[in-house]
Amino acid sequence: MSLSIKAAPDSHVKTEPKRILIVDDEPTILLTLSYALRSIGVEVITTSRLEPAEEALARYAFDLVIVDIRMSGILGIEGLELLSYIKRYWPKTEVIVMTAHGSAEIKQEAYGRGASYYYEKPVDITELAERVRSMGIPVKG
After folding, report:
1. Residue 3: inside a domain, yes or no?
2. Does the CA dihedral 102-111-30-79 come out positive or negative?
3. pTM recorded for the entire structure
4. Average pLDDT per run of 10 along the chain, which is 141 residues long?
5. Number of domains comprising the chain
6. Domain of 106: which CATH number?
7. Peptide bond into 122 cis (omega under 30)
């Protein structure tokens, strides 16, 4: 005799917190965004360079990546390259791109590579937190 048990959906079962990776070469942006997102109940990992971002992506599952397009590299589009990398290997991961050097062409390129949303800096923290909620990333509150 075999007994099959099905777990009923349970609203008080603990789930892992949602995880967000923030990649930006400006320490102030990293600090501000990470503080704001942690305060709404999201686990946040930050990095200021592409190599540690790629290492974090290989090590952890992320629900969302927030990436600056232009970092301290020569090309000025490192964030777009990271966006393409994420979409190639983790196509379900949402990606928000930000830039202080935006243009219609950059915006089109970001969306063409799979960005979920595009923001020009400065980014309104309250609006970003609401965007995170609207993307289905549960946060406390």
Report:
1. no
2. negative
3. 0.83
4. 39 63 93 89 92 94 94 72 95 94 92 96 88 76 46
5. 1
6. 3.40.50.2300
7. yes
